[in-house]
Amino acid sequence: MKQALSAEAAMAHAIDCARLGLGQTYPNPIVGAVITSATGELISQGFHQGADHAEVIALNGAKELPAGSILYITLEPCNHHGKTPPCVDAIIKSGIQKVIYAVSDPNPAAAGGAERLRHAGIEVESGIGEAQARIENRAWLTKIGKGRPRITWKIASTMDGKVAASDGSSKWITGELARADVARMRSQVDGIVTSTATVIADDPAMTSKGAGKNPVRIVMGSSEIAANIQIFNDAAETVLIKSRNFDDLLALANDRGFNQLLIESGPTFGTALLREDLIDEIVLFQAPTFLGSGTPSIGDLGITNISGRLDFEISDVEIIGSDLKITLIKSANHPEGGR
């Protein structure tokens, strides 16, 4: 007999399911759903992959729904007709008697699902697993909150903060496993952004290398680049923005509905985004090596006093092969600056 799931364990499983949809759902959020019996036996599960919503997949996957079945979902069920009908309609029709969700829907167009369910006589609870569900869905929540996609800057440096030696060479600072992890990261975002300077210097392909789907590649800058380089291969769509104005980047991203952008560039481009207060997260890969001299990972931010520093919080630390991976999220104490 399978072990019954507690409410917390069922929601944790739904969050794990939601994570499988990263990079597949824009402009929608990642969402996971789990259905259990009244006593906690797993009946069905599902996650949003860009078409049917997670709760509908879970409902369709259930051969039967015993009396008292409970639906756990990482985001409040939607109450509007978008690409698909409102999920609350499917839940009400299914006969589910109790719904537990982690995060209330902040999108005014889709909110109100919990109230609809209650009016239909369904018991509704919220808040279980909320903190973790928010972390996993932070890209979409940033987009709803700021009106732009979440922007993450990936940096690979030595322990003394250098991204290239004094002669410009930089391949490879980090090891093979760290580079494989970056490929996985690419598969979980909607667009990769780089500069014409990086493309000219490194000729990167910027694909997931088979780890998953390839995101849209976005190249910014006014320099001319050759037509036969890897960024123009047919592995993924490539968009050129012949501008250094980040408003043009945000306009493109918002028009496409992107939830998350990954910055893979040299320090000049990334530093410019930092100065504009557009970096929400930094993923720093550090190799256990030193150069002493060379190109620093971050350029001049115009900060002259310690009180002007840009504070980030350490969200996660991992050892990837021989390298260190540190995830830094903009500090809650850092002024947002409206961007």
Descriptive terms for the model:
27% helix; 339 residues; 15 strands; elongated; single chain; alpha/beta; five-stranded mixed beta sheet; eight-stranded mixed beta sheet
Descriptive report:
The chain is α/β, with parallel strands linked by helices. It is 27% helix and 24% strand. It is built from 10 helices and 15 strands. It has helices spanning 7-19, 54-61, 87-94, 113-119, 130-136, 138-146, 176-187, 196-202, 246-256, 267-275; strands spanning 32-36, 42-47, 70-75, 98-103, 123-126, 150-158, 162-164, 191-195, 216-220, 238-241, 260-263, 281-287, 295-296, 312-320, 323-330. The strands form 3 sheets. An 8-stranded mixed beta sheet has the order 10-9-8-11-6-12-15-14, sandwiched between helices. α3 (87-94) runs parallel beside α4 (113-119). The radius of gyration is 22 Å and the shape is elongated. The N and C termini lie far apart (52 Å).
